[in-house]
Specification:
The structure holds two protein chains of two kinds. Chain A contains 13 helices and no strands. Chain A has helices at 2-28, 36-54, 57-81, 86-105, 130-134, 139-157, 159-169, 171-176, 181-207, 219-229, 234-256, 263-288, 294-297. Chain B has a single domain (53-357), classed as Orthogonal Bundle (ABC transporter involved in vitamin B12 uptake, BtuC), CATH 1.10.3470. Chain B is built from 14 helices and no strands. The longest helix of chain B has 30 residues, at 125-154. Classes of the chains: A mainly alpha, B mainly alpha. The interface between A and B is large, with 52 and 52 residues.
């Protein structure tokens, strides 16, 4: 049972982890993107549709990334070029994605696909207990944690990471060093959306293998919350997202065991857990927050009112 | 606009500028474009699935504005948008972000239902309905109060906590309609028993329009009066303008912030009350879903102005109601109308944002 729950935690936490990493990139550049929910949803449908048409789930993942990037690009245009309120723009992108996916998803509701199979890693998957938990998954799940580590390396050990963080902290410094902050923001938000789209693709093409209207059920918004929980660190994001996945898996496992706890109460656990953890780390992450985000979270809503 | 003066062809552009200022028509035209652009884009969407845009649009128009039934539906829908929008606009004055009207509406509807079940038809409507309104307000206030306390006592960002509480609130509601509030005669469908007659707003003229909708514009008026004409409203703006200065001037900033959140939740909670005691007559898992987010956007569309909110809510209500026609005439999911709504908002976002940047 514990084994099943932990394996389930990895399975259901992965989509959130991709979205959470994407949002981390975006917020490091000073842009909050509630449209992450929309990018995930768009990614889930695009991936499912492309897989259904081509029969190739990898084409599906690419389509998912592209769809996620497109929704994020719209957000980037609104908040960077048109200087719109970030929270409002994110919600609008979310609403747009809900509409677009309901509109085009209608014909995919009953479709079946061959998705990303689980590919057990030879030898490693035979290790008792650890094997089934860590090494019997689809390829996207294997890639999620290395991606988080790569992002950490990228943020703290490369020049581009430094530029990205400079834009999020003090964009005038980045500007004075010869970088165009707006261009960096565009790139970060779009990359973030692509990652959220891959998260959505993992959901529809590897996890549930079907398309349901609004199937992300707020996972994109949870991802945004987990970025704060993780204090903008890709490594802590791993912990947060798999905790969330664990709560989801626990709920499914208890239901399967017929334990008489209402499923609705269990569904609350992930959200309450996120809230509770936020509460624990609230004081600390005030200092970890990229300077540029302060304006967004403290009610002004658009970044360029800060330093310029 | 100033940099155009330096350009060699400035004569034409300033001429246009002058024309624009002298003619309200030009402004009107721009707004018309802002309205027609989204319609054109959505028409393209309709064409891709082979739906006739003209037929669809006329069906949408008639379903929302064609007769008194459509207009009644628009009013019914606008009321919770207004109240949900006020729940955003009021905290915005103190620079607090409440994205939680969604959950506050759910808890308001839930509290109203509990109260309605407890009261039954023991009292006449003029006692029951105000009591239920208070119950709904209390439910919403409770939910918002959680976010308010988390923010002021434990420094948990209210944008995030209200978003998360939306999901928890929706699940609490769903849990209750599946268990303690389930109608024993419902053959296992998840909804509450019907409200007693005394707990229902009276409807008007054979439509679903009920007297409860007047609560929304009255609330908008009161909030406007409170913000602009009382010293309390001034306090709010001082706290919003510069919390640190307000603190040094002796304001209890935290207390004001919590009170604002409680008031916002109460407003949203009343929207929940209107839904169950006015429109639906019982609590369902779908009661009020999505209204809080639309209210948030409606408030933002008019720069958090309580009276402007009435207009923006009616506009969004027209769109939402006309979406139901999509399902009937074009057999598209009702939420497809979100595309149209989103492009209207994108148009405004792209315009308004630039103006603020200056």
């Amino acid at each position: 049972m514990l084994e099943a729950i932990l394996a389930g935690a990895i399975r259901s936490g992965t989509s959130v982890l991709f979205a959470c990493l994407g949002e981390t990139v975006s917020e490091r550049a000073g842009i909050v993107n509630l449209g992450t929910e929309g990018s995930m949803l768009g990614g889930a449908l695009a991936a499912f549709a492309a897989t259904a048409y081509t029969g190739n789930p990898y084409a599906g993942v690419l389509a998912g990334a592209a769809a996620g990037a497109i929704f994020a690009l719209l957000h980037a245009w609104l908040v960077v070029t048109r200087n719109a309120n970030q929270l409002v723009s994110g919600l609008v992108v979310m609403i747009l994605a809900q509409g677009v996916t309901a509109f085009f998803g209608r014909t995919f509701v009953d479709k079946q696909i061959v998705g990303l199979n689980t590919q057990p890693i030879p030898f490693l998957s035979d290790i008792p207990f650890v094997g089934p938990i860590l090494f019997q998954h689809d390829i996207l799940t294997y890639l999620a944690v290395p991606l988080a580590i790569a992002l950490w390396y990228g943020f703290y050990r490369t020049k581009w990471g430094l530029v990205l963080r400079a834009v999020g902290e003090r964009d005038d410094v980045a500007y004075a060093s010869g970088y165009n902050p707006d261009r960096v923001r565009y790139a970060a938000v779009t990359l973030g959306g692509a990652l959220a789209g891959i998260g959505g693709a993992q959901l529809s093409v590897a996890y549930t293998l079907n398309w349901v209207e609004e199937m992300t059920q707020g996972r994109g918004l949870v991802a945004v919350a987990l970025v704060i929980f993780a204090a903008w660190s890709p490594l802590r994001a791993i912990l947060g997202c798999y905790l969330f996945g664990g709560a989801t898996a626990l709920q499914l496992a208890l239901q399967a065991q017929g334990i008489p706890i209402s499923p609705f109460f269990l569904s609350m656990v992930p959200y309450l857990l996120t809230l509770f953890v936020l509460l624990l780390v609230a004081q600390k992450q005030r200092y970890a927050m990229p300077e540029g985000l302060r304006a967004v979270f403290e009610g002004k809503g658009n970044y360029s009112t800060q330093n310029r | 606009m100033q940099e155009t003066i330096a350009l060699p062809n400035s004569a034409s552009s300033t001429g246009l500028e002058r024309l624009r200022r002298s003619l309200p028509w030009a402004t009107l035209l721009r707004w018309l474009l802002l309205a027609l652009g989204p319609l054109a884009i959505f028409a393209l969407f309709l064409l891709t699935v082979g739906a006739d845009p003209i037929k669809t649009y006329s069906a949408m128009y008639f379903s929302a504005l064609g007769d008194s039934f459509g207009l009644a539906e628009v009013m019914i829908r606008a009321a919770p948008f207004i109240l949900g929008g006020l729940a955003t606009a009021l905290p915005a004055r103190t620079r607090l972000v409440n994205v939680g009207a969604e959950g506050q509406i759910a808890l308001g509807a839930l509290a109203t239902t509990f109260a309605a079940m407890a009261i039954g038809d023991r009292f006449p409507a003029w006692v029951t309905l105000p009591a239920l309104l208070v119950a709904g307000a209390a439910g919403g206030a409770l939910w918002a109060g959680v976010a308010g306390l988390l923010r002021t006592r434990l420094a948990v960002n209210e944008t995030i906590s209200t978003l998360l509480l939306n999901y928890v609130g929706a699940l609490v509601l769903i849990f209750c309609v599946h268990t303690v509030l389930k109608d024993p005669e419902s053959f296992n469908w998840p909804f509450s028993p019907p409200f007693a007659d005394a707990a229902r707003w009276v409807t008007i003229g054979g439509t679903r329009l009920h007297w409860g909708v007047i609560v929304a514009p009255i609330a908008a008026l009161l909030v406007w009066y409170f913000l602009t004409r009382t010293h309390w409203g001034l306090h709010l703006r001082v706290v919003g303008g510069n919390p640190e200065a307000a603190r040094r001037a002796g304001f209890n900033v935290e207390r004001i912030q919590v009170l604002v959140f409680l008031a916002a939740g109460a407003l949203a909670g009343m929207a929940g009350m209107l839904e169950v005691a006015g429109v639906e007559g019982r609590l369902r898992p779908t009661t009020g879903v999505g209204f809080g987010y639309v209210g948030f956007l409606a408030a933002w569309m008019v720069g958090q102005h309580p009276l402007g909110l009435i207009a923006s809510s009616i506009l969004l209500a027209v769109l939402a109601v006309s979406g139901d026609a999509l399902q009937i005439t074009a057999r598209l999911p009702a939420s497809s109308v979100n595309i149209l709504m989103a492009f209207v908002l994108i148009g405004i976002l792209a315009r308004v944002g630039k103006k603020n940047a200056a």
